[in-house]
Design goal:
The chain is an alpha/beta fold. It is about 30% helix and about 25% strand.
């Protein structure tokens, strides 16, 4: 079965139809720059434009960089504040004319990695961390998602660093804006992941986001007392996970 997945990020909105048997795209990915400001009306229009690039799908999964509860976006860290308490699922469904599932972007990426990628078959506690405009997280216990963990907003002040959110210290956006070398950024990633490990003691940490395809530049410099691996699906994981969750919610594939 083919379902459309769309991934809303701070810099780009990306989509592709996904073959749920393999987790692979069945057509080339389409990407449109995220509108600035990323307000409700502009983002909904852009998502509709991405969806129109493909044949109509039975259902559509959409990721969002925020806490999503019952189809409502509750936060807006890297998009316009108009998204706080917006009925996102209803708005996207009306714009696309299709059943829609909206979920946190890191949660979607994690679901894909546990189904098709680096977390497949791994029991215990698994954490997916996505480094991009911000830092997203997904937490799994024996394969079951604990949604909306938002571990990218852990406060780093207790470590005598910059203070504030972890994503303002170690996101890929910060690496680029502060022109950090890969070793310097790796040290920040290590500090953050050690902080995360001290709180959760996960069995596996999966690194996602765009930097997952550049893991050879920094991951060997990151020393954390658990296994840390790059996402197998790299930056496509969000699209794949969104499509999979949409299909599960529509009852056309099994899974929790």
């Amino acid at each position: 079965m083919v379902v459309l997945g769309i991934d809303i990020g701070g810099s780009g909105i990306k989509g592709a139809p996904v073959d749920l048997a393999t987790g692979e795209f069945t057509a080339d990915r389409v990407r449109i720059e995220t509108p600035q400001p990323a307000d409700v009306d502009s983002v909904v229009r852009t998502v509709a434009a991405v969806a129109k690039s493909f044949d109509p799908a039975a259902s559509v999964g959409i990721t969002f960089p925020a806490v999503v509860q019952h189809g409502v976006t509750k936060t807006a860290a890297n998009v316009d504040a108009s998204w706080v308490d917006a009925p996102a699922q209803r708005l996207f469904a009306e714009a696309l004319g299709r059943p829609v599932t909206v979920l946190n972007d890191a949660d979607a990426a994690g679901v894909a990695e546990l189904e098709y990628g680096a977390g497949k078959g791994v029991n215990g506690l698994v954490v997916m961390v996505t480094f991009g405009t911000g830092i997203g997280s997904a937490l799994f216990i024996d394969g079951r998602l604990v949604p909306n963990t938002e571990l990218g907003h852990l406060q780093m002040s207790g470590l005598h660093l910059h203070g504030g959110d972890a994503e303002d210290y170690a996101s890929d956006r910060i690496r680029e804006s502060e022109d950090l070398s890969w070793p310097d950024w790796a040290e920040r990633v290590q500090t953050y992941l050690r902080h995360l490990h001290a709180l959760l003691w996960p069995d596996l940490i999966i690194i996602g986001g765009g930097v997952s395809k550049k893991a050879d530049r920094y991951l060997h410099l990151v020393d954390v007392p658990t296994k840390v691996v790059p996402a197998a699906l790299q930056n496509n994981a969000g699209i794949v996970g969104a499509a999979l969750l949409a299909a599960r919610n529509a009852g056309v594939v099994a899974g929790g």
